[in-house]
Design brief:
Number of domains: 1
Strand content: 35-45%
Helix content: 10-25%
Radius of gyration: 17 Å
Order of helices and strands: HEEEHEE
Distance between the termini: 58 Å
Strand order of the largest sheet: 1-4-5-2-3
Number of helices: 2
Length: 100
């Protein structure tokens, strides 16, 4: 019985260890991963996202490389990210890359 309770606690709280984002009715956050505004300037923007539906199915590629390719960027100046969660039914994590 204790093993089953431990498994349930790990299942419920497991996502909290993997992400810095809070759960709630609606969450929308943005954050900087890296900044280098002074060097090189920003002329192009690329975005790449992953989406999760019902906490069961995740699709997409939110890597820096995917965002760089989407924006046709050769030299990255900085990287941002954003996260959106609506009732745990829909989640979106995006990487935003800017550069030349």
């Amino acid at each position: 019985m204790k093993a089953m309770n431990l498994f349930i606690v790990m299942l419920v709280l497991g996502g909290c260890a993997a992400t810095p984002h809070m759960s709630g009715i609606y969450v929308s956050t943005k954050g900087n991963v890296t900044t280098d505004h002074a060097k090189g300037g920003v002329k192009k923007t690329g975005r790449a996202c992953t989406k999760n539906f019902l906490g069961l199915v995740s699709v997409g590629d939110a890597s820096i490389e995917a965002a760089r390719k989407n924006g046709k960027i050769k030299k990255i100046s900085f990287v941002d990210n954003s996260y959106k969660n609506i009732l745990g039914l829909y989640q979106e994590y995006c990487t935003l890359v800017r550069g030349k």
